[in-house]
Description:
By secondary structure, the chain is an alpha+beta fold. It has helices at 86-112, 132-183, 185-228, 318-322; strands spanning 2-4, 8-11, 17-21, 37-41, 46-56, 59-62, 71-80, 116-120, 126-130, 241-243, 253-257, 269-276, 281-288, 294-300, 303-304, 308-309, 326-331, 334-339, 359-365, 368-373, 378-388, 395-400, 410-416, 426-431, 437-444, 449-459. Helices cover 28% and strands 35% of the residues. The strands form six sheets. Strands 10, 11, 12, 13, 14, 15 and 16 form a seven-stranded mixed beta sheet that branches. Strands 2-3-6-5-4-7 form a six-stranded antiparallel barrel. The chain is flat.
Amino acid sequence: MSWYTTGSVNLTNGSKTVTGVGTKWTNPLIGICAGQMLILKTKDTIEICEIASVQSDTQLTLANKYAGVTKTGVNYEIPTAPNVSVEHLALLISEMLNYYQQQMEGWQTVLTGQGEVTLTAPDGRIVTIKSQYSIQDELIKLVEKGKNFSEITIKNAELSNNASQSAKNSESSAKTSADNAAKFADSASQSAKNAGNSATSAKTAETGAQTSATEAKQSALDAKNWASTVDLKKHGIGNRNLLSDVDSFQLNGFGFVDNSTIGNKPFDFAEIIQSGDSKSESAQIALDLLSNRVKTRSGRLNIWNQWCEFMTTNNTNADTVGALPAVKTGANNAPIYKVGNQVNFDLKPKIAGTEPIYIIESYQNGDSWYNVYSNGFIEQSSVILSGTDEIQKIKFMAINLLKPMKTKNYGVSVDLYSNGGPWGWVRFACGNINCNSFILCSYTEANPGATLIRWTVRGY
C-alpha cells in the first residue's frame, strides 16, 4: 500500500467536484481511480470520502456530495494500490467494460427505443435526449395537424364565399323593395326608408364576407406552406445528411461523408451518428472505413474531446487486454473490476522489450509468392526461363517485381529451378535496380541454351 499526497485540494459544500492544486491524479504510475478513499486532514479533524471517478490531473468526482464546510488548500491523502497489482488491473478492466456497455445500451435505445434516453458523458454529466422513434412520431403528428388545419381553413373559406353570395342576393332584393316602395311614397315612405337601410347593411355584410374569404384563403396558403417546411430528412429520417466538417455541431442524426473533401477528419469515415444540442452538447459515433473499428467522442461549447475506441473482436487480443490497468473493489462479497484509463489499441505488444516481427501481407500464385513483414521487410520470388543463346555475350532480361519495394536497398539471388540446360556454365548478375524492377544479366563461355531459374529479392 502506498499513499499519494502531492499538492492540495479545494472542496465546496454540497458539490461532488474536488479541485486539485499541483496534483497529477491521472498518472497511471500512481494508480488513482474510482472506489478509493480521499482522506482530508485539517487541524482538528480527519474526513474520509469515496472517489467516484477521476476526470483529469486536477479534478475528480466524489461518490456523494461533500457535506463539510467549503475549504481551500486542504492537505489530503489517497491510499493507492501498486501499479502491477492484479486486482488493480481487473478493477480497471471491469470499470471500462461497464462504462462502454452502458454507452452501447444507451445508443441502442436512441436508435430503437421510445421516449427519452439518458446517457452518461465521459466527464460524469447526465445527458437526456429523445430517441429517433420519438422524434419521428412527433414530426408525423405535427404534419398531420398541419394538414387538418389546412383542410379546416379551406372549408371556412368556402363558407365565407357562400355568405358573400347570399349578401349580394339580399342587396338585390332590398333594391327591388325600395323601387316598389317609391310607387307608394305617401303610404310606404317609412318602408322605403327601412329598405334603404337594409340595403346599406347588406352591402356592409358583403364587404365583410369578402374580407373574411380573402383572409381565409391566405390562412389556408400559409398552413400549406408551413406543413411543407417540416422536412423529416433534416432529422436523419428517410435520408442521410452529407457532413462537410467532422467538428461541426450542426448535424443531428445519421450522416455520411466524402472522405476526399471533408475537413478535420482523423481517419476515413464509413458512417457517423451525431446527436445532441448543436449549441452546447453533442456526441458522435463513427465507423472507421479502413480498420473497421468503432470510435466515439463527445463535445461541449464547440470543443470536442478526444476520440475513444470501442473494444471489439477486431481490435483486442491477449496482449492488449492483459495490458489494461484495473482496480478491484467488492460489493455483496463479489469482486468488481473497473478500468480507469483509456487503452491505445495502436500500441504493439513487446517481448522482452522488443516488438515482434510478423507477416502483415502474403501472396502466392503458382511458383510466385511474396511476404511483407511488420517492420517493412519484403521478400518475394518467382520462376522465369533464362536464355543464353550466344556464348561469350552478356544477355539482359528485365524482371518486374511482384511487390514494389520502398527503397533500392535489397539483394537479388538466383537458384536453379529444374535440371536441364547449361546451368553449370551460366553466370548471373543484376543491375539497374529500382523499386519496381531490376535487370538480370546472364553470361556463358560455352553450351548456350535456356534454363528455368528462380529469382529471389529480399530487402526494404
